[in-house]
Design goal:
This protein is mostly helical. It contains two helices and two strands; from the N terminus they run ββαα. A hairpin with a 2-residue loop joins strand 1 (about 1-5) and strand 2. The chain starts with a strand and ends in a 7-residue tail after the last helix.
Amino acid sequence: MEQSGGSSNVDYDEIAIGVRHRVPEAFASGCVFWPFANCINFAFVPAGMRVPYLASVGGLWNGYLSNMNARKGGDGK
């Protein structure tokens, strides 16, 4: 289904295909990344620095997700 919104056309089928390909990869990556980040957080980061640490790690995670989303095609190529 393709709809026109102003001057741009949005292909919702293409968006759905991209979501089907990227979400499982992002979820699996998060299942590896966040437990590791939290182990470091609770083992080595002082209590007063945990929020800044997690904010920084979250920024890295968002950069990874943005990079993954910017890649062309459903398979990341």
